[in-house]
Amino acid sequence: MTARTTVPAVDGWFTVPADGADPKLLGLRCDACGTYVFPPRPGGCPNPACTAETLTSTELSSVGTVWSYTANHYAPPPPYVAAEPFQPYPLAAVQMEAEGIIVLGQVAAGVPTDSLRVGQPMKLDLGVLSSDDEHDYLIYTWAPA
Ligand SMILES: [Zn+2]
Known about the structure:
The protein has strands spanning 5-8, 26-29, 36-37, 56-59, 63-72, 89-96, 102-107, 121-131, 135-144. By secondary structure, it is an all-beta fold. It has a domain at 62-144. The strands form 2 sheets. Strands 5-6-7-9-8 form a 5-stranded mixed β-barrel. It has a 3-stranded antiparallel sheet with strand order 3-2-4, with no helix packed on it. A hairpin with a 5-residue loop joins strand 6 (89-96) and strand 7. It is globular and about 45 Å long. The protein starts with a strand and ends with a strand. Bound molecules: zinc ion (ZN). Residues 30, 32-33, 35, 45, 47, 50, 52 line the site of zinc ion (ZN).
């Protein structure tokens, strides 16, 4: 049996520290008006009052509070790899403390939906979305802080 390698399920959305440090989301920031963007995407500033054409890559903070949450009862379409049988899982929209933006993500494994509360402190974590013979595919998750 060979060891699987841990890799991000999506490149460029979050860090995977090898030294046990906290993971960080990778977003964009407008140098002109300070607007943050996550996930990173091409194009100019989304602030309608700003005309900046370029955004700068930046690490975001890793803490925030629950803005809203729900339980997902339907398997997302491929390329999402859903467990068989599908198990509902909680999603949280977390307002990031430093940036003010709201970032949707799966909640860390083992945290039941009915334990979540609006305003609850959360921190970024990593979890395994799926695995194959060679890789564990990581996603960012929100965990109670
Ligand atoms: Zn801007």
